[in-house]
Design brief:
The protein has 65 residues and is an all-alpha fold. The chain has one domain (12-60). Helix content is 68%, strand content 0%. It has helices at 12-26, 28-36, 41-60. The radius of gyration is 20 Å and the shape is elongated. It starts with 11 loop residues before the first helix and ends in a 5-residue tail after the last helix. Residues 9-36 form a coiled coil. This is Small ribosomal subunit protein bS21. GO terms for molecular function: structural constituent of ribosome. It comes from Flavisolibacter tropicus.
Length: 65
């Protein structure tokens, strides 16, 4: 739960802006998207390996990015 400390004289727009920044820094939306569906650890690992292979191929010049 995000808590925003706002002063009485503070504008509602400033408080909303603070909330949005705190929301992005906490990465709540990413966590919600990850929890929508379960991916097996082996599938995650395979994706990471494929991504690493792809990055290596781009770095070596085999694939044009």
């Amino acid at each position: 739960m995000l808590i925003i400390d706002s002063k009485d004289c503070e504008n509602i727009d400033k408080a909303l802006k603070k909330y949005k920044k705190k929301f992005e820094k906490a990465k709540i939306l990413l966590q919600l998207r990850e929890r929508q569906s379960f991916t097996k650890p082996s599938v995650k690992r395979r994706g990471e390996v494929l991504k690493a292979i792809y990055k290596q191929q781009i770095a070596s010049g085999k694939i044009e990015g």
